[in-house]
Amino acid sequence: MDWLWIPITVWAALAQTVRNAAQRSLVATLGTLGATLVRFLYGLPFALLWLAAVAAATGKPMPQPGLAFFAWVALGALAQIAATALLLAAMQERNFALGVAYSKTEVLQTAVFATVFLGDPLGAISATAVLAATLGVLLLSPVDRERPLRTLLAGWTSRASLLGIGSGAGFALAAVGYRGATLALPDSGFLIAAAAALAAAQLLQTLALGGFLALRDPGAIAGALREWRRSLVAGFTGAAASAGWFTAFALAPAAHVRTLGLVELVFSYAVSRRFFRERLTRLEAAGMWLLALGVGAIAFAG
């Protein structure tokens, strides 16, 4: 059972790739926040069905969550929404690429927050893997290709970079919150604990973002309802990816899951090279090797 989180995380990364493609096709029609709402609104029914299916398959009763569970779910759900908003704000800055690059420190921040708030262990191999993967992702990010590290170090106090760091912190807190929620149901079994946390998070995010858009941009909600066919695809794949992430969080430390989840980038670059004949620069190749080293090491450590 100690290794089960590895294939589940790889599955979540693959499903997330499909979800991103489906969601991206809706941005032009619904706007960024409208397309984000689709992920929660249309994913919620599938999350509830998954919870019911897990309960039926395992024969376990529905969990009776306490205050701690709901507190962790609220942290994860709201931090994820805030992280998305901060990332969008970073992208609107003149030096948006720097902000996006700094948001990639999510994995490193997850390791720190998980250790502080959850007491998740982080051994020498795991710490090295997290650092290698973070550096690899930064080298693959769209910063100044001539002086990438100098640009990152010199620009860390800019507004764009601070927004990016804030976004990474939000995504890190979301991972920690979701793992904390699954750990708050110790007697339920990892599958139903993860499914219950997913359903609760999707419901809260639907209500929170849906309520915000109802006040600020009701047309986005109407558009999401009109585009129900394409939205169902995004909702289903989003729920499938989230089910994988939540289940992995129930089985392994958040930093391990998020680091291995970066295998999504390895898949993307492999496809790019195989099917589109795109070649990596030396800098990108170095980043890819560091990323692969981090992903491999965290799987070995897990």
Folded structure, characterized:
With 302 residues, this protein is an all-alpha fold. It has one domain (5-301). The chain is built from 14 helices and no strands. It has helices at 5-41, 43-58, 67-91, 96-103, 106-118, 124-140, 148-154, 159-183, 190-216, 218-226, 228-251, 254-260, 263-276, 282-301. Helix 4 (96-103) runs parallel beside helix 8 (159-183) and helix 5 runs antiparallel to helix 6. The longest helix is centred in the first third of the chain and has 37 residues, at 5-41. It is globular, with a radius of gyration of 19 Å. The mean pLDDT is 84.
Task: Give me some keywords for this one.
302 residues; mainly alpha; 14 helices; 82% helix; 0% strand
Write a compact overview of the structure shown.
It is built from 14 helices and no strands. With 302 residues, it is an all-alpha fold.
Which class best fits the helix and strand makeup? Answer: mainly alpha
**Order of helical and strand elements:** HHHHHHHHHHHHHH
Total of domains: 1
Distance between the termini: 11 Å
Q: Any chance you could write out the topology, listing elements then pairs?
A:
Layout: H1 5-41, H2 43-58, H3 67-91, H4 96-103, H5 106-118, H6 124-140, H7 148-154, H8 159-183, H9 190-216, H10 218-226, H11 228-251, H12 254-260, H13 263-276, H14 282-301
Helix pairs in contact: 1-9, 1-10, 1-11, 2-9, 2-11, 3-8, 3-9, 4-8, 5-6, 5-8, 5-12, 6-14, 8-9, 8-11, 9-10, 9-11
